[in-house]
From TrEMBL:
<dbReference type="GO" id="GO:0004181">
    <property type="term" value="F:metallocarboxypeptidase activity"/>
</dbReference>
<keyword id="KW-0645">Protease</keyword>
<keyword id="KW-0479">Metal-binding</keyword>
<feature type="binding site">
    <location>
        <position position="151"/>
    </location>
    <ligand>
        <name>Zn(2+) 2</name>
    </ligand>
</feature>
<feature type="active site">
    <location>
        <position position="153"/>
    </location>
</feature>
<protein>
    <submittedName>
        <fullName>Carboxypeptidase S</fullName>
    </submittedName>
</protein>
<feature type="binding site">
    <location>
        <position position="221"/>
    </location>
    <ligand>
        <name>Zn(2+) 1</name>
    </ligand>
</feature>
<dbReference type="GO" id="GO:0046872">
    <property type="term" value="F:metal ion binding"/>
</dbReference>
<dbReference type="InterPro" id="IPR047177">
    <property type="entry name" value="Pept_M20A"/>
</dbReference>
<dbReference type="GO" id="GO:0051603">
    <property type="term" value="P:proteolysis involved in protein catabolic process"/>
</dbReference>
<dbReference type="InterPro" id="IPR002933">
    <property type="entry name" value="Peptidase_M20"/>
</dbReference>
<dbReference type="GO" id="GO:0000328">
    <property type="term" value="C:fungal-type vacuole lumen"/>
</dbReference>
<feature type="binding site">
    <location>
        <position position="249"/>
    </location>
    <ligand>
        <name>Zn(2+) 2</name>
    </ligand>
</feature>
<feature type="active site" description="Proton acceptor">
    <location>
        <position position="220"/>
    </location>
</feature>
<keyword id="KW-0862">Zinc</keyword>
<feature type="binding site">
    <location>
        <position position="186"/>
    </location>
    <ligand>
        <name>Zn(2+) 2</name>
    </ligand>
</feature>
<dbReference type="InterPro" id="IPR001261">
    <property type="entry name" value="ArgE/DapE_CS"/>
</dbReference>
Length: 568
C-alpha cells in the first residue's frame, strides 16, 4: 500500500499500530478470552462469529490447515510468487508501451499453473492485460457479491542494499519461521492467501450461495491507474454501482503486543485525502551584485515560514473515525493509560449539545496520545524545494512542494483556500501577482514587475478524503468483527485476555481509492499481527512474513467467506 505519489505509506500505516502498541503494554495473561460487550455505548463489541450451517466444513478445513503438508505447500506457493519480481515504478508508461510490465505476464502464468482448479471452475477475466477478476458464481443471485481485493505488484528493491538482506530479496525461501522476500507481506500474502482459501473451499466441495469476486490490481505501489482504476471501471460496468455487499482490501492488522492482554484489531473504515501543492515564485533575473531586498528564494522561504506558522488545526468530529477509534481506546485501554475522567468525558462528548465536553475530551486525548492529533487534522509537510542555478545569478524561479494528508472533515478545496488565504496578503505586501490554482488574482498590481506566485496541483494526484464506512448498526461490520474474533479465538497462537475490534483511519491510500462507487462497505484489513510482518521493516530491506501468520490469514479468509455466505 502506498499514497498516491512517491513516498511509502506503509510506514505511516504501521505508525498507528506502533502507537497503539504503546498503550497496550505490560503483563502477559494466558488464555484468550474475548471481549464482547454489545451494550457498550463507547465501543460496542460483538461475539466471535463461527459459521453454523458450514460449521462442519469449517472445522474440517481448520484441521487440514494445521497439518504439516498443508503448511509447507502454502509456504511454497507464497514463496514461489515472491520469486517473480513484480516491481512497479513511478515512471511506467501505460501497458503496451513499456516492457517493464512483462513480468506480470509471468506472474499471471504462475497463478494459473499454481491454481488450476480455480482457473477451471471460476470465470477468470483479465482487465487491461494484467488486472485479474475471478468470479465465483453463487447460487442465490439476489445476494450482493463479496469482493476481495489485493495487488500483484511490489515496491522495487534497492540493490545498493542487497548485502543487508539476510536472504536475497526475491528468494521466497522459508527458513523454518519466516517466508522471505519483497512482497511476502505487501501484498502477495493477501493475494495468495485468498487464492489458497478459494482453492481449499473448492476442493472441499463448497458451493457458495453468495457470489464471491476476487480482483487483483497491479500498480498499487505506483499510481493505480493501470490496475485498480481500470478494474473499478470494469467492475462498475459489469456488476453495477453499489453492487457489492462489501469490499475487503489490504490494510492494518491487529496490535498483538499484548503484554497487558488485549489484542486490538484495526480494520480501516476510511482514508485521508491527498494533495501535493506546488508553490512557485517567479522573479526577474539579474546580476546578484545589485540584488532586490528578497530574491525568489528569500520570498519562498518567508512564505514557507508563514505556512508552517499556520498549520491546519485538529478537529475531532462526533461522526468521524478518529472519535470512534478514540472511544474504543478509552473504553478498552488498560487501567492508567488515560486520566480517570476520560470515560465519563467521552460519554458526555457524544452528546451533540455538549461542545465543552467534546473540547475537553479532544484536549485530553491529544495530550495522552498525540497520534490522535495527527488523525484529526490535515497535515502539511514541505517535502521538496528547488531554486537557483548559479551563484552570481539571481534565481528566476524558486519552488516548493507541500504534501498534505487531508482530514476526513476537510477537502482539497479547503486546503487550497488555506494556502491562498496566506499567500494573498503576502503577495500584496511584496507586490507580487498571483496565479492560484488556475485563477489569476491581482493584488492591487495588474502585472507586478517584482514577480509572481504560482500555486498549482503538483502532480494532478489530488484525492478527496474517502467516504466513511458506517460501523453503527452495520451488519457487515459486525460480521467482519465477529470473524476476526473467531479466527483469533480458535487459534492456538495467542496469549491474551481479549480482542477488541476498533475502526481505524488510513493515513495512506490503497487501491480502494478507486472503489468508492462499488459499495459503501469498504474495509481495509490484513489479518496479521504486528509481530508477524515486520522483521526488519517494510518497503525496505528484509521484508518477511511469519509462516504461521500466513496460515492464520488463510483461516481468516475461509471463516470470512463462510460467515458472509451465511449472512443476509
Ligand atoms: C459530520 O459532522 C460535521 C460537523 O460536526 C459536519 O459538518 C458533517 O457534515 C458531518 N458529516 C456527516 C457525513 O454527517
Ligand atoms: C509596491 O506597490 C506600491 C503601490 O501599489 C508602491 O507604493 C510600493 O512602493 C511598491 N513596493 C515595492 C517594493 O515595489
Ligand atoms: C463514480 O461515479 C461517478 C458518478 O457516476 C463518476 O463520475 C465517477 O467517475 C465514478 N468514479 C470512479 C472511480 O469510477
Ligand atoms: Zn500494499
Amino acid at each position: 500500500m502506498k499514497p498516491i505519489s512517491y513516498r511509502p505509506a506503509f510506514s505511516l500505516f504501521c505508525a498507528s499500530l506502533v502507537l497503539l502498541s504503546l498503550w497496550i503494554n505490560s503483563e502477559k495473561i494466558l488464555g484468550l478470552r474475548i471481549t464482547s460487550d454489545p451494550d457498550s455505548t463507547l465501543c460496542p463489541q460483538v461475539e466471535p462469529l463461527f459459521p453454523t450451517a458450514h460449521a462442519e466444513l469449517s472445522k474440517r478445513l481448520d484441521t487440514m490447515y494445521f497439518s504439516e503438508t498443508f503448511k509447507s505447500s502454502s509456504y511454497q506457493l507464497l514463496g514461489a510468487s515472491v520469486q517473480i519480481p513484480t516491481e512497479s515504478y513511478d515512471d511506467l508508461l501505460p501497458v503496451g508501451q513499456d516492457d517493464r510490465w512483462d513480468v506480470f505476464k509471468t506472474f499471471n502464468i504462475y497463478l494459473e499453473g499454481a491454481f488450476p482448479l480455480i482457473y477451471s471452475t471460476l470465470k477468470v477475466i483479465t482487465v487491461n492485460t494484467y488486472g485479474l477478476v475471478l468470479h465465483w458464481q453463487g447460487s442465490d443471485a439476489t445476494l450482493k457479491p463479496l469482493l476481495l481485493t489485493a495487488h500483484q505488484d511490489v515496491v522495487p528493491v534497492d540493490w545498493s542494499n542487497e548485502d543487508k538482506w539476510v536472504h536475497p530479496p526475491y528468494s521466497g525461501s522459508y527458513d523454518g519461521t519466516w517466508i522471505w522476500g519483497r512482497g511476502s507481506v505487501d501484498d502477495k500474502a493477501d493475494l495468495i492467501a485468498q487464492l489458497i482459501t478459494v482453492n481449499s473451499l473448492l476442493e472441499a466441495g463448497f458451493q457458495p450461495r453468495r457470489t464471491v469476486v476476487l480482483a487483483f490490481g497491479f500498480d498499487e505501489e505506483a499510481s493505480g491507474t493501470e490496475g485498480a482504476e481500470k478494474l473499478a471501471a470494469f467492475l462498475e460496468e459489469r456488476y453495477g454501482k453499489n453492487a457489492f455487499a462489501m469490499i475487503l482490501d489490504e490494510g492494518e492488522g491487529y496490535a498483538e503486543n499484548v503484554k497487558e492482554g488485549t489484542i486490538f484489531a484495526l480494520p480501516g473504515v476510511s482514508e485521508k485525502g491527498y494533495f501535493d501543492a506546488s508553490i512557485e515564485i517567479l522573479a526577474p533575473g539579474g546580476h546578484s551584485s545589485i540584488p532586490p531586498e528578497h530574491t525568489s528564494i528569500g520570498l519562498l522561504s518567508l512564505l514557507i515560514v508563514s505556512l508552517e506558522a499556520n498549520p491546519h488545526l485538529p478537529r475531532l468530529t462526533r461522526n468521524g473515525t478518529a472519535f470512534a477509534a478514540a472511544k474504543c481506546a478509552v473504553e478498552h485501554a488498560p487501567e492508567g493509560r488515560f486520566p480517570h475522567s476520560m470515560k465519563d468525558l467521552a460519554h458526555r462528548a457524544m452528546n451533540a449539545h455538549d461542545e465543552i465536553a467534546l473540547e475537553k475530551f479532544s484536549k485530553a486525548l491529544f495530550s495522552s496520545i498525540p497520534f490522535f492529533d495527527v488523525l484529526s487534522h490535515t497535515t502539511q509537510a514541505v517535502d521538496l524545494i528547488t531554486g537557483g542555478i548559479k551563484t552570481n545569478m539571481l534565481p528566476q524561479r524558486a519552488g516548493a512542494i507541500v504534501n498534505h494528508r487531508i482530514a476526513e472533515h476537510s477537502s482539497t478545496l479547503e486546503v487550497k483556500n488555506h494556502i491562498k488565504d496566506l499567500v494573498l496578503p503576502f503577495a500584496t505586501r511584496y507586490n507580487l501577482s498571483v496565479q492560484a490554482f488556475g485563477e489569476d488574482i491581482h493584488c492591487g498590481h495588474k502585472i507586478s514587475r517584482l514577480g509572481k506566485i504560482v500555486l498549482s496541483d503538483a502532480f494532478y494526484s489530488a484525492l478527496e478524503p474517502s467516504p466513511i464506512t458506517p460501523i453503527a448498526e452495520n451488519h457487515l461490520y459486525d460480521v467482519l468483527s465477529g470473524t476476526i474474533k473467531s479466527t483469533l479465538q480458535s487459534s492456538s497462537r495467542y496469549e491474551a485476555d481479549g480482542v477488541v475490534v476498533s475502526p481505524s483511519l488510513g493515513l495512506g491510500n490503497t487501491d480502494t481509492r478507486f472503489y468508492w462507487n462499488l459499495t459503501e462497505n469498504i474495509f481495509r484489513y490484513s489479518h496479521r499481527g504486528d509481530r508477524d510482518d515486520v522483521y526488519n521493516g517494510m518497503h525496505t530491506i528484509n521484508e518477511a512474513l511469519r509462516g504461521d501468520a500466513f496460515i492464520e490469514e488463510i483461516r481468516f479468509f475461509t471463516m470470512l467467506i463462510l460467515n458472509v455466505d451465511e449472512s443476509h
